[in-house]
User: Which sequence fits this backbone?
């Protein structure tokens, strides 16, 4: 799969603060790649270096495997800060300015307005737009010129639930059209719903990277209960493929190896004459995983 962006030992320091520390990652075509971390983790600094807004102290990055040379930046659309448009001008006229700056034909404007579902409001002044509509217009501006990659830094900041849902649907729709998305956010639940891949940063360090579903499958926790908890615990302890057993709230929490499922455990126990009164597979959220690795990092 074609590499869209690759970094090698990327470093950035502000005084005594190490904003980004020896950062390596690779983003491939078609991915919705989430960069997650608390404020100050290095997300925006990383994106700023990739866009040439700020220079790294050391290390390197490369867009599109170098095939566009110095013109690679023209193939990347980006929103790094809050959208800035002329308030008394219409959405259409604001995008004409963007198109002129990008040296693009005005004919692309109708396409992007329809894509972000603002075509019917194209003649409305920017000042009349809701916060969510302003953000969608910013995405439309970033999409002028048909970029191959789109960078979004905290795209749902300050939005209400409906606005967040609109941006989520827009990101998925844009990715479905072949645009690779790089999304920095601290809203973990939203990233879990949107991203195919994730990298977690803290204090400039990469703590985890990979497919979202693979990261969330690092632990399979099954919650079980029986009328005779002693027999249940003794029996479960004989299963070699159980990784750990923990008692909590009058239930057993057992960590399963990847090949096991709740159904397999239930059938095994039934063969041993143990009937379960409670059986529940606990889904591991990205937020819980994130907090766990941050805790380990700060110990």
Assistant:
């Amino acid at each position: 799969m074609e590499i869209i962006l690759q970094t090698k030992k990327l470093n950035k320091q502000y005084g005594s603060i190490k904003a980004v520390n020896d950062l390596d990652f690779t983003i491939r075509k078609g991915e919705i790649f989430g960069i997650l971390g608390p404020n100050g983790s290095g997300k925006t600094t990383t994106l700023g270096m990739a866009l040439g807004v700020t220079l790294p102290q050391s290390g390197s990055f490369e867009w599109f495997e170098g095939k566009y040379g110095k013109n690679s930046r023209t193939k990347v659309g980006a929103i790094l800060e809050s959208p800035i448009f002329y308030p008394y001008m219409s959405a259409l006229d604001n995008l004409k300015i963007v198109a002129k700056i990008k040296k693009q034909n005005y004919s692309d404007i109708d396409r992007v307005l329809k894509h972000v579902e603002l075509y019917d409001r194209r003649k409305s002044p920017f000042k009349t737009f809701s916060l969510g509509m302003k953000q969608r217009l910013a995405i439309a501006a970033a999409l002028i010129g048909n970029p191959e990659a789109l960078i979004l830094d905290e795209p749902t900041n300050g939005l209400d639930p409906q606005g967040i849902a609109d941006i989520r649907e827009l990101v998925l729709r844009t990715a479905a059209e072949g645009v690779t998305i790089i999304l920095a956010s601290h809203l973990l639940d939203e990233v879990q719903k949107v991203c195919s891949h994730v990298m977690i940063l803290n204090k400039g360090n990469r703590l985890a990277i990979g497919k979202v579903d693979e990261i969330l499958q690092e632990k399979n926790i099954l919650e079980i209960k029986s009328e005779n908890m002693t027999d249940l615990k003794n029996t479960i302890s004989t299963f070699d493929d159980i990784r750990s057993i923990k008692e909590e709230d009058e239930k057993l929490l057992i960590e399963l190896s990847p090949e096991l499922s709740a159904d397999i455990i239930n059938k095994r126990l039934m063969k041993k004459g143990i009937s379960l009164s409670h059986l529940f597979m606990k889904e591991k959220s990205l937020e819980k995983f994130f907090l766990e690795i941050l805790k380990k990092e700060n110990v």
Q: What stands out?
A: Residues 226 and 277 are 5 Å apart (CA to CA). Residues 219-283 form a domain with the Alpha-Beta Plaits fold (CATH 3.30.70.100).
